[in-house]
């Protein structure tokens, strides 16, 4: 049923210009994070050759995705540490630090020698840089989303926060397009020698711009009020686990985003490799399918978020989950038919339904927790969910398809995560238009 609150509290009175700056500042770090995911996913076969030379193609690809998966288990650690700091010293300081670490690690990957140059040290250094990225990303998302959400008026919070999500999918599209252009322009030898490095090195100027914008902003009104009243949590982690209401919401913060994990890391990050390796699409065909679906979801996300501001978060989330439970298998079946048009149709349908989840999941998580522990609790729940159901997905799916020969394995995974999200949403309370200053 539509959400019809008796009041429409507005937490902040920020000017439109200030809201634009805040949204841009939050989006840039998320852009850098998902730009890396896009290029890593698209370039995975080349990275496998460069860093795991001498292995069979499937084994090297599994190792490449293994590095991708392992780093996600450092996201909860980053969430603990950086979420704690964001609730203790402020959102802005953590945003600046996380972006600096993330940018440095991504750029460093572009400078690493390959296996043929330094041997086993190459994949070890790759793993170290990915761990640094995972740690920084663990604090980046919650801090960026809280930063935008705590500045936003309650009746437009979902819509304004959704632009940060648009930035993440735009980053995936940008990374994929850039990697594809390089692949088309350069020979296979040139790509393996130096071409694959270019997208990673571009993280440096992007990060510098983001640092400049973030460093010039003030912290959120919500956190500033805690500082002025001397009510900042002394130990946000302990307070998160001490409050019964926080514990319940923490469990939901793990369950509700599971569809978010399969969406990012199955429908988009893993998709280029799935289309080329499993379905034997050529690079242009694979890019077409992935790019069209990314454009569709980037356009749809603000519309879904705006709808959730009007009728509530739960109806939109449930529609997304139910739609993907019903349609994921038929959509992946369309992809296996070998037709680009059929594959685009399947990917677009999934992107449309997934936008109902991606557009508002972070608004829901921001609205679930009080300001004193928002970053800590949000980071812990979201990053545990992402580590378990997201980062390992490409590795698990590649292994399962290799073992079973069933190209529909990704569809089963999407259905499973959609069911998990749907059950969690049923247990959750409506949060749309809630006042963050009252928490």
List the secondary-structure elements in sequence, H or E.
HHHHHHHHHHHHHHHHHHHHHHH
Mean pLDDT across all residues, rounded?
87
Q: Distance N terminus to C terminus?
A: 25 Å
Shape: globular
What is the CATH fold-level name? Growth Hormone, Chain: A
Unreliable runs, pLDDT <50, ≥5 residues? Answer: 1-10
Residue share in β-strands: under 5%
- The amount of helix comes to over 70%
Main beta sheet strand tally, sense and closure: none
Q: How many helix segments?
A: 23
- Cα gyration radius (Å): 21 Å
* Name of the CATH class: Mainly Alpha
Number of domains: 1
**Beta strands, count:** 0
* CATH superfamily label: MFS general substrate transporter like domains
CATH architecture: Up-down Bundle
Structural class: mainly alpha
């Amino acid at each position: 049923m539509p959400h019809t609150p008796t009041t429409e509290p507005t937490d902040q009175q920020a000017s439109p210009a200030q809201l634009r700056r805040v949204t841009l500042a939050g989006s840039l770090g998320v852009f850098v994070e998902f730009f890396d995911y896009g290029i890593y996913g698209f370039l995975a076969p080349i990275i496998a050759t460069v860093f795991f030379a001498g292995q069979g193609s499937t084994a090297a690809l599994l190792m490449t995705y293994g590095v991708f998966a392992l780093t996600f288990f450092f996201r909860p650690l980053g969430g603990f540490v950086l979420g704690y700091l964001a609730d203790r010293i402020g959102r802005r300081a953590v945003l600046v630090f996380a972006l600096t670490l993330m940018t440095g690690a991504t750029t460093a990957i572009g400078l690493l020698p390959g296996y043929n140059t330094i041997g086993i040290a190459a994949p070890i250094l790759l793993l170290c840089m990915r761990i640094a990225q995972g740690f920084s990303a663990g604090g980046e998302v919650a801090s960026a989303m809280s930063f935008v959400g705590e500045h936003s008026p309650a009746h437009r919070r979902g819509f304004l926060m959704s632009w940060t999500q648009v930035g993440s999918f735009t980053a995936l599209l940008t990374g994929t397009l850039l990697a594809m252009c390089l692949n088309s322009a350069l020979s296979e030898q040139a790509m393996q020698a130096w071409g694959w490095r270019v997208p990673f090195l571009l993280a440096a100027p992007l990060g510098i711009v983001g640092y400049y914008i973030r460093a010039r902003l003030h912290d959120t009104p919500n956190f500033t009020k805690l500082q002025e009243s001397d009510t900042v949590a002394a130990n946000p982690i302990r307070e998160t686990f001490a409050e019964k209401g926080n514990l319940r919401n923490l469990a939901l913060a793990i369950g509700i985003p599971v569809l978010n994990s399969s969406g990012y890391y199955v429908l988009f990050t893993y998709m280029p490799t799935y289309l080329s390796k499993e379905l034997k699409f050529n690079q242009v065909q694979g890019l077409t399918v992935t790019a069209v679906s990314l454009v569709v979801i980037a356009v749809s996300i603000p519309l879904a978020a705006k709808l959730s501001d009007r009728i509530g978060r739960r109806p939109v989330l449930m529609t997304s989950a139910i739609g993907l439970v019903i349609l994921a298998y038929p959509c992946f079946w369309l992809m296996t038919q070998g037709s680009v048009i059929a594959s685009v149709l399947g990917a677009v349908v999934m992107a449309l339904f997934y936008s109902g989840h991606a557009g508002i999941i972070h608004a829901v998580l921001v609205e679930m927790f009080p300001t004193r522990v928002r970053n800590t609790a949000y980071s812990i729940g979201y990053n545990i969910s992402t580590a378990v159901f997201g980062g390992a997905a490409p590795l698990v799916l590649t292994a399962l398809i290799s073992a079973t020969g069933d190209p529909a394995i990704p569809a089963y995974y999407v259905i499973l995560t959609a069911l998990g999200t749907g059950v969690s949403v049923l247990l959750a309370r409506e949060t749309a238009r809630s006042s963050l200053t009252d928490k």
